[in-house]
Amino acid sequence: MPAKPAKQRLTEAAFALFEERGYDQTTVDDITDRAGVGRSTFFRAFRSKEDVIFPDHEVLLSAIEARLAGSDPRTATVAVTEAARLVLRHYVAEGELALARYRLTRSVPALRAREIAGTRQYQRLFQEFVHRWMGGGEETALRAELMAAAVVTAHNHVLRRWLRGQATDPEAAFDAAMADTVALFGNTGEAETTVVAFRTGKDLSAVLPGLRKLLGDEGTLG
């Protein structure tokens, strides 16, 4: 069987040691000794011990940016959903590694702070994209910020439930959560329908012919 790449060996060694000894008690030398590589190999793969916990953050940011950039106003909602799905699928594919990271970030304040900072970067990407999609005007800035926050919150809700063993089908849970999220914002890009309400003293039968003519052949009342 081919030897595992050095980065993979380092990651597995680090997480095993973090679980055995604790994050703060594990040094870079401990990790390299367990992985059977030198310090120079470690620092070619990671900038710090903390980076071992979040090795693919920049890759995921680039993947989200690329998915959003490949959309247009007609497919913007789908792009937002699918970009968030990329992150969910990445964590699910990690399996035990994702579960170990979750335990660590719950118990080490510095790692939790790093995780929160990363989440804000994801949210900023979505916010900037949604703002452009909505026209980029000052009047849509708050709406874009709210929608981006809702997308990230929905994703994180599903991911946490999966990490806690409360969701056996995270993809289905994600689809439902994103449908609810998109519905919160209603119509954001398609042509809108205008509804006009008015008072009249005439009988409805006398008013309907004029309304039908105003609405055209496709208009329906009743």
Automatic annotation (TrEMBL):
<dbReference type="InterPro" id="IPR009057">
    <property type="entry name" value="Homeodomain-like_sf"/>
</dbReference>
<dbReference type="GO" id="GO:0003700">
    <property type="term" value="F:DNA-binding transcription factor activity"/>
</dbReference>
<feature type="domain" description="HTH tetR-type">
    <location>
        <begin position="4"/>
        <end position="64"/>
    </location>
</feature>
<dbReference type="Pfam" id="PF00440">
    <property type="entry name" value="TetR_N"/>
</dbReference>
<keyword id="KW-0238">DNA-binding</keyword>
<dbReference type="InterPro" id="IPR001647">
    <property type="entry name" value="HTH_TetR"/>
</dbReference>
<protein>
    <submittedName>
        <fullName>TetR family transcriptional regulator</fullName>
    </submittedName>
</protein>
<dbReference type="GO" id="GO:0000976">
    <property type="term" value="F:transcription cis-regulatory region binding"/>
</dbReference>
<dbReference type="InterPro" id="IPR041347">
    <property type="entry name" value="MftR_C"/>
</dbReference>
<dbReference type="Pfam" id="PF17754">
    <property type="entry name" value="TetR_C_14"/>
</dbReference>
<feature type="DNA-binding region" description="H-T-H motif">
    <location>
        <begin position="27"/>
        <end position="46"/>
    </location>
</feature>
<dbReference type="InterPro" id="IPR050109">
    <property type="entry name" value="HTH-type_TetR-like_transc_reg"/>
</dbReference>
